[in-house]
Amino acid sequence: MELDFEHCYRAVDSRDQRFDGCFYTAVRTTGIYCRPSCPAVTPKRQNVTFYVSAAAAQRGGFRACRRCRPDAAPGSPEWDARADTVGRAMRLIGDGIVDREGVTGLASRLGYTERHLNRMLTAELGAGPLALARAQRAQTARILVETTDLGLAEIAFAAGFGSVRQFNDTMLEVYAQSPSRLREKRPVARGEAGVINLRLAYRAPLHAAALLEFLGARTLPGVDEVVGTTYRRGLALPHGTANVSLRPGERWVFAELRLSDVRDLAPAVARCRRLFDLDADPDAVDAMLGADPALADAVRAEPGVRVPRAVDGFEIAVRAVVGQQVSVSGARTTLGRIVRAAVEGSVGDVDGLDGLDGLGPSGPAPAPTSTNQLAGFPSAAVVADLPDSAFGMPTARRATIRALATAVADGKLDLEPGADRAETTARLLELPGIGPWTAGYVAMRAIGDPDVFLPTDLAARRGAAALGLPHSAKALAEHAERWRPWRSYALIRLWRAA
């Protein structure tokens, strides 16, 4: 990507927080790189170089600013929205694929040779996959040094470094301080043992109420819950499980992580950011949607509405299939049965589950408590092996879920953020019982496609009617063309209007 010097320099001179994570400012006279919003004195033009990624700035010999913490900036919305190979690679690197499978594994998932992938990333980002993963390891290590009492050797391997020496050298190079020195300067209050507390940056505005309302209406006992202004859920991660609490605040989402294996810190953070859509550019989205007179008032009243995404693509796909032509509350009942069956191993008398956990007709769910231990959604392999009595749905829909689970478990269907969006949608449509609505919903929430629209969706059409928009499927689809490339965000607003 080419950066326009004047555009970047004006953003730095005005300390514009909207550009944090979009590019990095390296100052040759000090040898440091910063966020555009760094509060330090604006450097002179002749001393500045701009980089697309923190990894490129580090590769150029610059260390991270201690004042503005550029390594903790929001991710670039470029990688959040792009469906090409580089965008997919960035999402996979963020999820820790290079640490777990190496560059070979990353290249294999993307269908390229390592050499060609390195060329593509270096051309666009100024750094190859190893350098990008190294920058992420350094940030993960810094978090662990500052927020836990783990030994430094444990942190080195937990963050993905191959040796303690490599860990020490990288931290000195990136932060100009040894790990032991960073630990000496860490904040005094660190919270309870086994808990990692983080602040996840985002680009303002963020309409937190919309996120919590959407997720709260779809919570499943034992999987996730909303407690006041905090969303909690269980995660199934590459090396173990975790419980996470997310509480939106000014400029940050405060995250509390309990990991069974600290090697999962980076993927846990990536999935939390993805769930709350924290790397989006709300100004760009709202500018496009607000230009439509029918949406202008809604955008002004509720700026920064995000698309609630996913920590588990398979979970979203099952939710989409179960939710076909049923209400949200009805879908929760059925999903609750599946979760309970997976936990217990067998469901016994399914009819007896109707009132459990407030999912059935017996009344509302009890208020959740923040001490609950939550588990991630059952894996595809587990769901594929459940007995018929676990599903409580028509035979055809049960067959659809089984086919979906089998395809994911066998590796024939990729529902993670690095998946090829067009290929995944095509493979979903090949499964029995999955049509355009289901495939589109999965593409929007599981794979993160920002430009999905579901014109046949009843709630979307009701929302359109409430806003004075055309509300027949064909007319609404035609009108929605003006909302590209942010139709997923428009769909969320139509649902809210409904």
Question: Can you characterise this structure?
Answer:
The chain is α+β, with helices and mostly antiparallel strands and 498 residues long. Helices cover 47% and strands 10% of the residues. It has helices at residues 5-13, 54-59, 77-81, 85-94, 97-110, 114-125, 129-147, 152-158, 164-175, 179-184, 208-216, 265-275, 282-290, 293-301, 313-322, 328-344, 380-384, 395-409, 421-430, 436-445, 458-466, 473-480, 487-497; strands at residues 24-27, 32-34, 48-51, 63-64, 196-201, 224-227, 230-237, 240-248, 252-259. The longest helix is centred in the N-terminal third of the chain and has 19 residues, at 129-147. The two termini are 40 Å apart. The relative contact order is 0.09. Residues 346-370 have low confidence and may be disordered.
